[in-house]
Structure formats: C-alpha cells, structure tokens
Amino acid sequence: MGLATAANADLLAFYKFDGVNDWSDSMGNWPDAVPNNPGLPPSTTTDSPLVGRALDLSQGGLNCGNIYGDGLDISVAFWMKTTPSMGSYTGPISKIEDSSLPNKFGWHVLTRPAGENSVLIFRMGAWQSYGGWGQELTTTPDAYSQDHWTHWVFTYNHATDTAIAYRNGVFDAQMTGIQKRGVAGAANKTEDLTMGAGHPEGDAYKGLLDEVAYFNEVVSAENAMKFYLGDYSAYDESLKTTPPDGATVPVTFDLLEWELPEPNDPVGGTMSCDVWFSDDYPNYGQDPNNSDFTDYATKIVNNEAVESISVPVVLEPYHTYYWRIDLYDDSLPQPPAQPSIGQVFTFNTNNMAPKVDAGIAEPTWLVDGTVDFDLLGELTEDDGLPVPATLLWTVANPDLTIITDPTQPGITVTATGSGLFVVTLTADDTDLTGSDTVSILIYENECVKMKEMDSLTPRITDHNGDCVTDVLDVAIFAREWLLRIDESR
C-alpha cells in the first residue's frame, strides 16, 4: 500500500513495521513514530505473523503522535503476541486523555492477566480511575498468548454507543452503552496514539505488535476478516500517478503526473511535495523503505504545490527509472519540517512503436462481379529495436482476398462484392506494433459509381438510367409516346 489521500480518510494510519526499526506510517499521512523514552527504544523483530518484521516493545514504548480524523467512530486492528516480560495489567494501544473533566476524548485497549482469563478490554471515553469506566467491552478468554499471534479488530459506533471485537477475523464480543465519560472517537486532537506505553493502573505492555491500523470509521465484519488475511485493498487510497507504478512506457514518454491528496484540513490547509528522480538505483527493493534512495536520486520538485513535471532526462529504451513523491501538509497541528516520505515508484521503457502509412485508394467498381485493385503502403518510422519491423496487410471481409505477398509494401487485392471495405497495414518489431487502415469504396458497376459521384451524362436512349439501352428502354419510350398522343387529342 502506498501513500494515502487525506489524513481524514477512512484509514488514518497503518504501521507495518516491516523494515529494521521502521516506525513509519505506511499511508504517508503522519511523521514517523518516536520512542517514548529515547534511551529505551523499541525495536523490530523477524517474528512476524505475516511477512517482514513486527514491533518488539520489550525495551520501550512507541509514540505515534497526535493522529486524528474528522469523526467520532473508530476502529483499530492489530496483531499481538505477548512475552514473558509483559506485566499483568498493560496497555498495548492507547489514545486517551488522563483527565476527569467532561467532554474529553479517549480510547484504550487493555490486557488482563491469566487470573482474569487473559482477556482484552476495550474502553471508550476519558481516563477514569479503576472501576469508573462504566461498561467495558471484554473479549472472550485467552485473548493473547506467548505461543502464537492473535489478530484483533475493535470497532466503536458513536451513534449507537456500541463496540464490537473480532478475533482472527471472526466476531468475538459486543457491548452497547460502554462510554462512561467524555466523547470517544477519531476526532481526538489532544492526545497521542501510543503503543506499549502502559497506563496508570499497571505496567507497560512489553509484548509484540504488528500491522497496526487505525480507522476513522466502523469497519465491516467482512473487512475484519480481510485484515486478518492481510488484505487491506478496500482501503488502498494510493497516490494516483502517471505512469502507474511498474508500468511500461514508450521512450517518447515525457511527463510525470500525480494527484496531490486533500490536506487534513481541506478548508484551511494546503498540500505540497518534493519529487525525486533517478535513472539508476541498484539498491531498489533491498530495504522495504528504500531509505537510501536520495543518495542516487535528484530532487526535481522542491516543496511545491504542483501535480506534474517533465521527465528530466531523455529516456533510453529498455531501461528502468525510479521516482518518489514526498508530501507536506501545512494543516497538521505542527507541520513537520520534513515531509512524509513516499514510496519509490518505478517505470520501464520499451522502444518506439513503428509507424506505417497505408496510403489511399480510389473508388472503383465491379466488372462481371469482380475487380482487382492495388494498394501501396509505407513503413514511415522504425528504430530497429528490438529487431527491424516487418509489414503485414490483412483484410477482415470475405469479399476481399489479397492475391500477392501481404508482407510487401505494395499489394493487389481482389474484390467480389460491393460496399465500403477496410484494409489494414501493420508493422511489428516483436515488442510493439503500429498500424494504419485504408478504406476503398467498390460500386456494383460503373453506372452506379458515376451516378453516386454526379458525373453521369445520361444517354438519350437510356430511359431508365441503368446505363444500358435495351428492350426495356424501348417499352418506356413507347409508353411515354402514346401518353403524349392521348394528351394532344
């Protein structure tokens, strides 16, 4: 998944932890998370439920900053696996205000020890001392383990004051009326989203987390199962680029384009970007974040609100190029001096497609039900790559037959029917093709052609206009003569 659109999109932030000590939001909405205690930073481990790495909080917690959206509904999805060093009462994930004042925001995921069946608790509302939360959503027992990973999705619907839990993609528990104090929801602009930070009731969570996703909506049961399977395609709001990532373009391609997302505050905010470009990046893909890309790339856009720029080099055939778009959002509470780093896009080039000219064809007509006509085409452009282009004439109508070598520029065609026909000339260099068509109008006979083109000079003896003087014309003449005699009497 690449860069997201606005920070108030449905998927606010997504932490994959796939790189070594990678604490970045893969959606590109927010600055990288930082350790709660720089002297005791968390780390990443290869013990992951899916691919890549996972977050190891055994040494310290992580602060993701003040992530927020524009609504009061939320969902949070994550994988978790505990460790022997984890305390009994811990807070794996929290975004909560430590205050007893009304109208505050917050939500909190808590663990309970084996003596309380190893459940997870999902709380909504501002912080309260133990027992002051009112109703709480409690999962079924054995919600976590030291032996295996478990996937959880918690949702909260503010309108109905209902929370739902899904374990490994399947419904686990539901509770209505769980909010005790204040307003819970994604619109919390005061407190930071934290992982493994602990809470006033107990110890810091020192287990493992992975694939932590925070939403500005109530996700569906169907998507809860998809998240468990690692499928977030329903929330893929990747930056739309031209060319698309991994596309192949002709060497004549000359304009990079993209759509800047909406800022977190669409009314008062603006988006801008840096764009980096390189024609050589030997380390591509070796690091999930391609963190050394700028060592090989040139910045071609510097913090500008633009959505296109010319390709800065003359493209070579059969080459791979690399580029990256980093985003600035000046509507965030404290706009970062550094942008949100984007993914490295690639595109490949092929050669230039050959071009042909199929020529022109003058109208003709059938003689005794058939006619031959000549066409002369031309290969007008060909770069000779990967091999010199070859020609081929083709017809699609059974009334046309090519009677000479169809691979030559000039051909002869036999027609056995009348109408408008199309003949195609194609050039093929085994990689790309180019084609052109020529249309020819074939009349039933010369007389029809001349009448259609208003060039027919009627014979005085051709009374029915069929270009033939025969007994029918004599009959027409006789009838008209007798009518004139009758009228003169």
What can you tell me about this protein's structure?
The structure is a single chain. The longest helix has 18 residues, at 471-488. The protein folds into 4 domains: 11-235, Jelly Rolls; 241-349, Immunoglobulin-like (Sandwich); 355-452, Immunoglobulins (Immunoglobulin-like); 459-489. The protein has 3 helices and 32 strands. 7% of the residues lie in helices and 34% in strands. Residues 1-8 have low confidence and may be disordered. The strands form 7 sheets. Strands 1, 3, 4, 6, 11, 12, 13 and 15 form an 8-stranded antiparallel β-sheet that branches. A 7-stranded antiparallel β-sheet has the order 2-5-14-7-8-9-10, with no helix packed on it. The protein has 489 residues and is mainly β. A hairpin with a 7-residue loop joins strand 29 and strand 30 (410-415). It starts with 10 loop residues before the first strand and ends with a helix.
Break the fold down into its secondary structure elements and pairings:
Elements: E1 11-15, E2 34-35, E3 43-45, E4 54-56, E5 62-63, E6 74-81, E7 93-96, E8 106-111, E9 120-124, E10 137-138, E11 150-157, E12 162-167, E13 170-176, E14 194-195, E15 208-215, H1 221-228, E16 241-242, E17 247-249, E18 255-258, E19 271-278, E20 298-304, E21 308-310, E22 320-329, E23 344-349, E24 355-357, E25 364-365, E26 371-376, E27 378-381, E28 390-395, E29 400-402, E30 410-415, E31 419-428, E32 433-443, H2 446-452, H3 471-488
Parallel strand pairs: 17-23, 25-32
Antiparallel strand pairs: 1-15, 2-5, 3-4, 4-15, 5-14, 6-11, 6-15, 7-8, 7-14, 8-9, 9-10, 11-12, 12-13, 16-18, 18-21, 19-20, 19-22, 22-23, 24-27, 26-30, 28-31, 29-30, 31-32
